Amino acid sequence: MSSSEASAKEIERIIERLRALGDEQRRARATRFGVRSERRFGIKTPDLRKLARELGRNHERALLLWETGWQDARHLAILTAEPKKITEAQIEAWAADFDAWDIVDNACGSLIDKTPLARPKLREWIQRPEEYVRRAGFVLMATLAVHDKKAPDDDFLGFLELTKAAEPDPRNFVWKAVDWAVRQIGKRNPTLNAAARRTAAALAVDEDPTRRRIGRIALKELEGAAVQERLRKRQAKRATKNR
């Protein structure tokens, strides 16, 4: 048996395992959350992540899983791809297939934000017209704010400027991603919280209704007691550690 035939057999076995993990009712419910149910088995995220851990990372296999077109297989591809092997051409090919918010968010937060391509891609993608590609640009801002612990504040101050300069986009999955980016940046530390609140305050009085909505939602959370208390505790912990 050739290596290509072996690979094809492996992909077939994985698809059958995904099918067995699926739940028809869960698949049908996906549409209520803005997720397309076609070409999807309806698998719980913990089950998908467990299978990904069992399979381990294999970049070539991940590319083949993506090509099947099954959404659950594409989620598995994201979770088992090797960030160091991902190329710009591969990222763009996958971005061309983005057709649901959950696949975008998983791709950004589990793979792309771990690559050197994340920052140049987010700057490019927030200018693109495709709804899910544009969402991906702003989602990368949010996931980098959460995952890139060593990044300097200047990176995120620059992202806030990009959100202010971006053309207003009333499409549901875009404006929500902009709001998410502002909020996650503002939860990173007190300095960025103040900057994000200024950004949100400016958006909240903009003449564009989408910008106003983003600003008001972000400002409410960033000024809220829960976020402020979390930031105070984090700051106190760091001060104690540095003594």
Quick structural gist:
Helix content is 71%, strand content 0%. The mean pLDDT is 92.
The amount of beta strand, in percent, is under 5%
The CATH topology assignment of the largest domain is Serine Threonine Protein Phosphatase 5, Tetratricopeptide repeat
Q: Give the SSE order as H and E letters.
A: HHHHHHHHHHHHHH
The number of helical segments is 14
How many β-strand stretches?
Answer: 0
Radius of gyration: 20 Å
- Largest beta sheet, briefly? none
CATH class of the largest domain: Mainly Alpha
CATH architecture grouping of the largest domain: Alpha Horseshoe
Helical fraction equals over 70%
Low-confidence stretches: none
Shape from CA axes? globular
End-to-end Cα distance, whole Å, is 63 Å
Tell me the structural class.
mainly alpha
- Residue-averaged pLDDT, rounded? 92
Description:
- By secondary structure, this protein is mostly helical.
- The chain has two domains: 1-81, no CATH class; 96-243, Serine Threonine Protein Phosphatase 5, Tetratricopeptide repeat (Alpha Horseshoe), CATH 1.25.40.
- Helix content is 71%, strand content 0%.
- The chain has helices spanning 3-21, 24-29, 45-55, 59-67, 71-80, 88-95, 101-110, 118-125, 131-147, 153-165, 172-186, 190-204, 209-223, 225-241.
- Helix 3 (45-55) crosses helix 5, helix 5 packs parallel to helix 7 (101-110) and helix 8 runs antiparallel to helix 9 (131-147).
- The radius of gyration is 20 Å and the shape is globular.
- The termini are far apart.
